[in-house]
Design brief:
With about 80 residues, this protein is mainly β. Helix content is about 10%, strand content about 35%. Strands 2-1-5-3-4 form a five-stranded mixed beta sheet, with helices on one face. A hairpin with a 4-residue loop joins strand 1 and strand 2. It is globular, with a radius of gyration of 11 Å. The chain binds FE2/S2 (inorganic) cluster. The site of FE2/S2 (inorganic) cluster (FES) has 14 residues, from loops.
Length: about 80
Amino acid sequence: PFTAKCLKSGITVEVDEGQSLLQALLDADIPMDYSCEGGVCGTCVVPLVSGEVEHMDEFLMDDEHADQLITCVSRGEGEIEIDV
Ligand code: FES
């Protein structure tokens, strides 16, 4: 599990093992666009502000992983901050 602080909405979500960050955001009523839910279309991208992330998408370039995160497949470690 990991924690995502959502800076724009002021909400903090807990993401369990069996759940995607995207799903946790939707469950918290944060409006999210998404499509493939498989890490390939890029629709569910969010700005990454801080924290360690295990990137598992096939959409972003390596250098884009510094400040972006694909929420349907990638996971944080500990606590991360995203700008949604
Ligand atoms: Fe397609 Fe996340 S919904 S990459």
